[in-house]
Protein backbone atom coordinates (compact mmCIF):
# COMPACT_ATOMS: atom_id res chain seq x y z
CA UNK A 1 0.00 0.00 0.00
CA UNK A 2 1.41 3.39 -0.98
CA UNK A 3 1.81 5.88 1.88
CA UNK A 4 -1.03 8.32 2.33
CA UNK A 5 -1.71 11.25 4.61
CA UNK A 6 -4.92 12.15 6.39
CA UNK A 7 -5.24 15.53 8.10
CA UNK A 8 -7.47 16.86 10.84
CA UNK A 9 -7.98 20.51 11.67
CA UNK A 10 -9.79 21.96 14.67
CA UNK A 11 -10.24 25.37 13.10
CA UNK A 12 -10.59 28.32 15.45
CA UNK A 13 -10.89 31.98 14.50
CA UNK A 14 -7.50 32.50 16.17
CA UNK A 15 -4.60 30.52 14.66
CA UNK A 16 -3.13 30.23 18.16
CA UNK A 17 -6.06 28.01 19.15
CA UNK A 18 -6.19 25.99 15.93
CA UNK A 19 -5.29 22.33 16.33
CA UNK A 20 -3.73 20.38 13.47
CA UNK A 21 -3.03 16.66 13.19
CA UNK A 22 -1.55 14.55 10.40
CA UNK A 23 -1.84 10.77 10.18
CA UNK A 24 0.50 8.80 7.96
CA UNK A 25 -0.71 5.40 6.77
CA UNK A 26 1.95 3.11 5.36
CA UNK A 27 2.25 -0.68 5.16
CA UNK A 28 -1.07 -1.00 7.02
CA UNK A 29 0.25 1.04 9.95
CA UNK A 30 -1.44 4.33 10.86
CA UNK A 31 0.75 6.69 12.85
CA UNK A 32 0.22 10.20 14.18
CA UNK A 33 2.99 12.02 12.37
CA UNK A 34 2.25 15.40 13.92
CA UNK A 35 -0.25 17.06 16.22
CA UNK A 36 0.07 20.56 17.58
CA UNK A 37 -1.87 23.69 18.42
CA UNK A 38 -1.06 26.96 16.71
CA UNK A 39 -1.74 26.55 13.00
CA UNK A 40 -1.75 29.44 10.55
CA UNK A 41 -3.67 29.52 7.28
CA UNK A 42 -0.46 28.49 5.53
CA UNK A 43 -0.08 25.55 7.91
CA UNK A 44 -3.65 24.43 7.19
CA UNK A 45 -3.07 24.61 3.43
CA UNK A 46 0.21 22.71 3.75
CA UNK A 47 -1.60 19.91 5.62
CA UNK A 48 -4.64 19.67 3.33
CA UNK A 49 -3.09 19.89 -0.14
CA UNK A 50 -1.03 16.66 0.03
CA UNK A 51 -3.66 14.77 2.04
CA UNK A 52 -5.86 12.01 0.67
CA UNK A 53 -8.58 13.39 2.95
CA UNK A 54 -8.82 16.15 5.54
CA UNK A 55 -11.45 16.58 8.22
CA UNK A 56 -12.08 20.18 9.25
CA UNK A 57 -14.06 21.03 12.37
CA UNK A 58 -15.87 24.12 11.08
CA UNK A 59 -19.11 24.80 9.18
CA UNK A 60 -18.43 24.83 5.46
CA UNK A 61 -21.54 26.84 4.57
CA UNK A 62 -24.59 28.75 5.79
CA UNK A 63 -28.28 27.75 5.84
CA UNK A 64 -29.94 28.36 2.49
CA UNK A 65 -32.94 30.06 4.10
CA UNK A 66 -30.62 32.35 6.06
CA UNK A 67 -28.77 33.32 2.88
CA UNK A 68 -32.09 33.96 1.13
CA UNK A 69 -33.38 36.01 4.06
CA UNK A 70 -30.29 38.23 4.17
CA UNK A 71 -30.31 38.70 0.38
CA UNK A 72 -34.02 39.50 0.35
CA UNK A 73 -33.69 41.91 3.25
CA UNK A 74 -30.77 43.66 1.58
CA UNK A 75 -32.63 43.93 -1.73
CA UNK A 76 -35.80 45.13 0.00
CA UNK A 77 -37.97 42.44 -1.55
CA UNK A 78 -38.22 40.01 1.37
CA UNK A 79 -41.77 38.76 1.76
CA UNK A 80 -43.20 38.84 5.26
CA UNK A 81 -43.24 35.29 6.70
CA UNK A 82 -46.65 34.01 7.69
CA UNK A 83 -45.25 32.69 10.96
CA UNK A 84 -42.05 33.88 12.67
CA UNK A 85 -42.24 31.44 15.56
CA UNK A 86 -39.59 28.98 16.79
CA UNK A 87 -40.01 26.56 13.88
CA UNK A 88 -39.42 29.34 11.32
CA UNK A 89 -36.38 30.65 13.20
CA UNK A 90 -34.95 27.13 13.46
CA UNK A 91 -35.36 26.63 9.72
CA UNK A 92 -33.59 29.93 9.05
CA UNK A 93 -30.73 29.49 11.52
CA UNK A 94 -29.85 25.80 11.19
CA UNK A 95 -28.67 23.82 8.20
CA UNK A 96 -30.20 20.53 7.18
CA UNK A 97 -27.03 18.76 8.30
CA UNK A 98 -27.28 20.36 11.76
CA UNK A 99 -30.79 18.97 12.16
CA UNK A 100 -29.67 15.57 10.85
CA UNK A 101 -26.82 15.41 13.38
CA UNK A 102 -29.27 16.21 16.16
CA UNK A 103 -31.61 13.49 14.93
CA UNK A 104 -28.85 10.89 14.73
CA UNK A 105 -26.78 11.52 17.85
CA UNK A 106 -28.75 14.00 19.95
CA UNK A 107 -26.24 16.86 19.65
CA UNK A 108 -27.17 20.18 18.05
CA UNK A 109 -24.28 21.93 16.29
CA UNK A 110 -23.86 25.65 16.90
CA UNK A 111 -25.70 27.82 14.40
CA UNK A 112 -23.23 29.31 11.93
CA UNK A 113 -25.86 31.99 11.29
CA UNK A 114 -26.31 33.06 14.91
CA UNK A 115 -23.34 31.96 17.02
CA UNK A 116 -19.62 32.63 17.40
CA UNK A 117 -18.87 29.59 15.23
CA UNK A 118 -19.34 32.04 12.34
CA UNK A 119 -15.90 33.51 13.05
CA UNK A 120 -13.93 30.34 12.19
CA UNK A 121 -16.39 29.65 9.35
CA UNK A 122 -15.44 32.96 7.76
CA UNK A 123 -11.78 32.05 8.19
CA UNK A 124 -12.45 28.73 6.46
CA UNK A 125 -14.17 30.47 3.53
CA UNK A 126 -10.95 32.40 2.91
CA UNK A 127 -8.80 29.26 3.26
CA UNK A 128 -11.13 27.38 0.89
CA UNK A 129 -10.69 30.15 -1.69
CA UNK A 130 -6.91 29.75 -1.47
CA UNK A 131 -7.25 25.98 -1.86
CA UNK A 132 -9.31 26.43 -5.02
CA UNK A 133 -6.67 28.80 -6.38
CA UNK A 134 -4.17 25.96 -5.91
CA UNK A 135 -6.36 23.46 -7.79
CA UNK A 136 -7.73 21.81 -4.67
CA UNK A 137 -11.53 21.96 -5.02
CA UNK A 138 -13.51 22.34 -1.80
CA UNK A 139 -17.15 21.43 -2.51
CA UNK A 140 -19.29 22.14 0.52
CA UNK A 141 -20.65 18.60 0.72
CA UNK A 142 -17.16 17.23 1.49
CA UNK A 143 -16.80 15.28 -1.74
CA UNK A 144 -13.41 16.89 -2.35
CA UNK A 145 -10.26 16.51 -0.28
CA UNK A 146 -11.69 18.44 2.67
CA UNK A 147 -14.83 17.39 4.53
CA UNK A 148 -16.66 18.98 7.41
CA UNK A 149 -16.55 17.07 10.70
CA UNK A 150 -17.78 17.61 14.25
CA UNK A 151 -15.64 15.79 16.85
CA UNK A 152 -18.26 16.08 19.61
CA UNK A 153 -20.87 14.41 17.42
CA UNK A 154 -18.37 11.76 16.30
CA UNK A 155 -17.67 10.96 19.95
CA UNK A 156 -21.41 10.65 20.55
CA UNK A 157 -21.67 8.26 17.59
CA UNK A 158 -18.89 6.16 19.17
CA UNK A 159 -20.62 6.11 22.55
CA UNK A 160 -18.69 8.94 24.24
CA UNK A 161 -21.40 11.60 23.99
CA UNK A 162 -21.46 12.62 27.65
CA UNK A 163 -17.75 13.40 27.90
CA UNK A 164 -17.02 16.94 29.16
CA UNK A 165 -13.44 17.20 28.03
CA UNK A 166 -13.12 20.84 27.00
CA UNK A 167 -10.79 23.48 28.44
CA UNK A 168 -8.91 23.28 31.76
CA UNK A 169 -11.93 21.98 33.65
CA UNK A 170 -12.00 18.92 31.42
CA UNK A 171 -8.34 17.96 31.79
CA UNK A 172 -8.96 14.83 33.85
CA UNK A 173 -11.79 13.63 31.59
CA UNK A 174 -9.66 14.42 28.55
CA UNK A 175 -6.86 12.20 29.80
CA UNK A 176 -9.34 9.37 30.40
CA UNK A 177 -10.82 9.93 26.95
CA UNK A 178 -7.40 9.65 25.29
CA UNK A 179 -6.94 6.29 27.06
CA UNK A 180 -10.41 5.13 25.97
CA UNK A 181 -9.82 6.16 22.37
CA UNK A 182 -6.43 4.43 22.38
CA UNK A 183 -8.19 1.24 23.39
CA UNK A 184 -10.90 1.77 20.76
CA UNK A 185 -8.35 2.43 18.01
CA UNK A 186 -5.71 -0.30 18.46
CA UNK A 187 -4.68 0.29 14.84
CA UNK A 188 -3.55 3.85 15.63
CA UNK A 189 0.02 4.50 16.77
CA UNK A 190 -0.14 7.67 18.85
CA UNK A 191 3.66 7.96 18.57
CA UNK A 192 3.99 9.60 21.96
CA UNK A 193 1.41 12.33 21.30
CA UNK A 194 -0.97 11.19 24.04
CA UNK A 195 0.18 13.90 26.46
CA UNK A 196 -0.32 16.65 23.89
CA UNK A 197 -3.91 15.52 23.32
CA UNK A 198 -4.58 15.04 27.02
CA UNK A 199 -3.29 18.57 27.60
CA UNK A 200 -5.31 20.32 24.88
CA UNK A 201 -8.83 19.73 23.60
CA UNK A 202 -7.82 21.55 20.40
CA UNK A 203 -5.12 18.94 19.76
CA UNK A 204 -7.44 16.07 20.64
CA UNK A 205 -10.21 17.39 18.40
CA UNK A 206 -7.70 17.63 15.54
CA UNK A 207 -6.83 13.94 15.95
CA UNK A 208 -10.52 13.00 16.11
CA UNK A 209 -11.13 15.08 12.97
CA UNK A 210 -8.36 13.18 11.19
CA UNK A 211 -9.76 9.81 12.26
CA UNK A 212 -13.22 10.77 10.99
CA UNK A 213 -11.67 11.90 7.71
CA UNK A 214 -10.07 8.47 7.42
CA UNK A 215 -13.47 6.86 8.01
CA UNK A 216 -14.86 9.01 5.18
CA UNK A 217 -11.98 7.94 2.94
CA UNK A 218 -12.66 4.27 3.72
CA UNK A 219 -16.40 4.58 3.05
CA UNK A 220 -17.32 4.13 6.70
CA UNK A 221 -19.09 7.46 7.24
CA UNK A 222 -22.60 8.73 6.61
CA UNK A 223 -22.90 10.52 3.28
CA UNK A 224 -25.75 12.92 2.44
CA UNK A 225 -28.88 10.93 1.59
CA UNK A 226 -30.45 11.61 -1.79
CA UNK A 227 -33.16 13.86 -0.35
CA UNK A 228 -30.52 16.09 1.34
CA UNK A 229 -27.88 16.06 -1.40
CA UNK A 230 -28.89 19.43 -2.82
CA UNK A 231 -28.93 21.04 0.62
CA UNK A 232 -25.52 19.54 1.41
CA UNK A 233 -24.11 20.98 -1.82
CA UNK A 234 -25.31 24.46 -0.80
CA UNK A 235 -24.89 24.38 2.98
CA UNK A 236 -22.24 21.79 3.80
CA UNK A 237 -22.49 18.34 5.34
CA UNK A 238 -21.20 17.09 8.70
CA UNK A 239 -19.71 13.63 8.16
CA UNK A 240 -20.38 11.23 11.03
CA UNK A 241 -18.77 7.81 11.46
CA UNK A 242 -21.19 5.10 10.44
CA UNK A 243 -22.65 2.85 13.16
CA UNK A 244 -20.54 -0.25 13.69
Mean pLDDT: 96
Overall 3D shape? globular
How would a textbook summarize the main sheet?
6 strands, mixed
Lateral strand order in the biggest sheet: 5-4-1-2-3-6
CATH fold-type name:
Nucleotidyltransferase, domain 5
Written description of the protein model:
- This protein has one domain (4-59, 117-235): 2-Layer Sandwich (Nucleotidyltransferase, domain 5), CATH 3.30.420.
- The mean pLDDT is 96.
- Helix 6 packs across helix 9.
- The protein has helices at 41-48, 64-75, 86-93, 96-105, 118-133, 151-157, 171-184, 194-199, 201-217, 229-235, and strands at residues 4-10, 19-26, 29-37, 53-56, 146-148, 188-189.
- With 244 residues, it is an alpha/beta fold.
- A six-stranded mixed sheet has the order 5-4-1-2-3-6.
Key terms:
alpha/beta, Nucleotidyltransferase, domain 5, 6-stranded mixed β-sheet, globular
Layout of secondary structure:
Blueprint: E1 4-10, E2 19-26, E3 29-37, H1 41-48, E4 53-56, H2 64-75, H3 86-93, H4 96-105, H5 118-133, E5 146-148, H6 151-157, H7 171-184, E6 188-189, H8 194-199, H9 201-217, H10 229-235
Helix pairs in contact: 6-9
Short recap of the structure:
With 244 residues, the protein is of the alpha/beta class.
Amino acid sequence: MAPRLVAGIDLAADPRRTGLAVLREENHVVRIEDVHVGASDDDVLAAIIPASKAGVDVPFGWPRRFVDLVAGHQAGDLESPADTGPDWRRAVLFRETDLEVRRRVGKTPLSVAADKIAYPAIRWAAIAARLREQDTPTPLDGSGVACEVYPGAALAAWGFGAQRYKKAAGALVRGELVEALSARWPWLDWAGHEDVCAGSDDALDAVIAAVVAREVLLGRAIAPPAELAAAAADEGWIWLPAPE
